[in-house]
Design brief:
130 residues; mainly alpha; Arc Repressor Mutant, subunit A; three-stranded antiparallel beta sheet; 3 strands
Length: 130
Amino acid sequence: MPTPEKIIYDPNPPVDPRVETLVNELIGRVADKWTLLVLEELEDHGTCRFTELSRRVPGISQKMLTQTLRQMERDGLVVRTVHPVVPPKVEYCLTDLGHSLGEAFCGVWVWAEANLERVARARMAFDARG
């Protein structure tokens, strides 16, 4: 009778380097507060003009908003629509990909809400030792 194959657990399975690169890039970009704030505003308010976004995201400069939106557009998170009117009207809205990223980060909010008191207690205990 043949012996059953032994399954060996590999704690470090091979990772597709393209996936690893994308995750590292997205974490760096999305962890940026401006990207998260723009993502949240577009999620909450739908299609927004550039000037509307600049009003809704406190403290963001025009240059930083432009850079953030360009990178989000490059990553496929937003669609930029230019309307041929004078003065130019430019609008941004989330793509399905952008919405799905927003949903993924919603989990962080849920976790924070559920663990707010535990984190506060841990911080107080740590600070008391200092």
